[in-house]
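Good morning C.,

I know you're traveling, so I'll keep this short. The sequence:
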Amino acid sequence: MSVETIRKISVRDLKPGMYVTDFNHDWQDPCCKDKDPNAFRGPRRLQTEAEVQAVITHGILEVYIDVAKGEEADGTSLRQVEQALSEQLMALDDDDELSFKASAPIPFEEELSGAAEVKSRARKIVGDVLADARLGKQVALGPVQDAVRNMAESMFRNPDAILSLSLIKKRDEYTFMHSVNVGVFLMSFCRALKMKEETIIKVGVGGMLHDIGKMKTPESILNKAGKLTDEEFLIMKQHVTFSRQILEQTPGIPEISVFVAAQHHERFDGTGYPHGLKGDNINEFGQMAAIVDVYDAITSDRVYHKGNPPHVALKRMMDWSKNHFNPRLFQKFVQCVGIYPMGTLVRLENNLIGVVIRSNAESLLHPCIKVIIDGKVGKKLKPMDLNLMDHAKDTTKGYRIIRSEPIDKWKVDPKQFMPQPELF
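The tokens, ready to paste straight into the viewer:
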């Protein structure tokens, strides 16, 4: 597939014979107005007018086509789309209305081990709670609240420490760690919105338990490596309803926590499930959970797909945000994780290439990176820490990020350059 032949077009211009490379909607959460939820996953040539109408009926608004493999159409080139999305992301650095400045009372390195211990305990608690739920036992809310409170305390000491650990994902522990990561990201999100600590705790509990309903999903479906059948996907979708029912039957569960679990698959344009809620009919915490759930999911390696690098994931979600997410909340989330999130591979003006290892509250465009490659000659270097904020006013040395770099091209694993305490 060549970047030069990809075009983004409106579905109004879609015709039989066109080769669609991307249906441009959340891959893990297809629009659900159709009985065939798997119909729009993966590239394919549309053969008939009926197939075109099915795409439109599905609620999809824009698609990407390859004019080298099918019928042509006027549209926006993929290169132009990528450039526009990058500019939109970078513009958030100057948005005073959305910006937030947060100091960390404890240095990153000092908090890292404590954050790892807190998150490790949270993973065990989630595992125990989900195992109990599979056996039909009532949720033990106390340990979950304690774990969330400990994570919140770590986050207030230094938010980057516990967030950085969200990059360390094991495929075989996806269900457990996804729940913990959603809780962490949601708490960080709430912190960025300057919410009260008790609200942050309640939202964190909802994040940790948002997928508890999956314990009522048959394991043969939950752990299936291949594509789900239509019937299997309909069963999988029921986990949201089960999550709400389980939490509503849990004594002392905050209403906010239930909203997070019950609405994390709703979409701002009404194409989500289980109720097809639209706009502000979705609770604010449900809107936030939808953003966080997708971000962690599409940055995770699964049996059936390789996770997107963090910066690529944000660009894809920026593209979807016009329809799937509350745009203002999505922009705030970007500021929460950074325009170049931890783990992003970036190239500087002077052709040095490095991994983002920490954000800078003063400027999202000037994170701390670990330089690992001389991109001009393709030579790997001895890793060196570089705080781009220290060079923000000096334009002569080329210490400015010009773009993110594809990880596959350089054959590096960014996670190996991130601080990783032995405990985690």
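Safe travels,
E.
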